[in-house]
Give the backbone structure.
Amino acid sequence: MRIILCGFGVVGQSLVKLLDSRSEDLYARFGLKPRIVGVTDRKGSAQESSGLDLSRLIEVKKKFGSVKKYGNGKNKQTGLDLINNLDADVLVETTTSNYKDAEPGMSHITSAMKQGLHVISVNKGPLALAFPSLMELATYNQVLLKFSGTVGGGTPILDYAKNSLRGERISSFAGILNGTTNYILTNMANGMTFESALQDAKKKGYVEEDESLDLDGLDAAAKLVILANWIMDFKVTLPDIKRIGIRKVTTSDIQKASKNNCALKLIASCNKDLIVSPKEISLNDPLCVNGTLNAISFTSEHSGTQTIIGRGAGGIETASSILRDLLDIRQEISKN
Ligand code: HSE
């Protein structure tokens, strides 16, 4: 399977390490032989039609800060150049999410699908802004668009609701979908001010480069869009979400929640409306998880409410979700 990898940050590098360390096992167990034929990062590119040497790719990135020093010819290709010029089967899109125009991820994904490539995106921007039309484009071009890593990192939230609960009618769901804000609110419940909790989260490297994505609920809202489309068959995009972040949460809000035997959490919910907002959650509710954990409760017609809890971010966790998507694509290809 020939793969183009756009974006070589923490997730992209974790994926390459994972594929490298598991190569024999992946072939023996699943018949999967991934070859990365092209990679781009913010500074340049590397390509090799027979497949790049994965450990060398990691070494070069570590040493020079970019894959462009891989050093076998062309190294200034953009993601679009690679997608338009290389023979490949799958695009893995891991560039940074942006919720203004979703670029460059949007062009990568649409061009790849038009070229007949299957796509795995962990970039939430394009899905948040155009989920319905991207799914249509995938169907039209008879390719798969997979995005397991966009919600819950390595925790298979989307898969659980779509496949484990198949045949059920999910009537509503609510979840903590952003680890950073959960960490900040947990610290505030333990006595820190918003500002010191934010600084602590920054020091630990949890906060997005653009802090507004976490603090103003954009990341949680993007995940809610993906869940609502995929699980509830809604046709919605980011502007359909009512959104309040955590910047205005005060110590007294936290204390008030505590008096009610509750904790204040940033909850993304889908009932009649799609809302991201701070909300009091009972300390006895399984949804009430602390630290950077994510949790989501699905309520369905026959099987009641079930909660799934796990780490919602992290390089290797998210890489494991890309691997799940790759295996699904591999299975689909071999069926055909
Ligand atoms: N900023 C996100 C979070 C990362 O804190 O959950 C994963 O999408």
Observations:
- The domain at 2-154+315-335 is CATH 3.40.50.720 (Rossmann fold).
- The chain has two domains: 2-154+315-335, 157-311.
- The chain is about 45% helix and 20% strand.
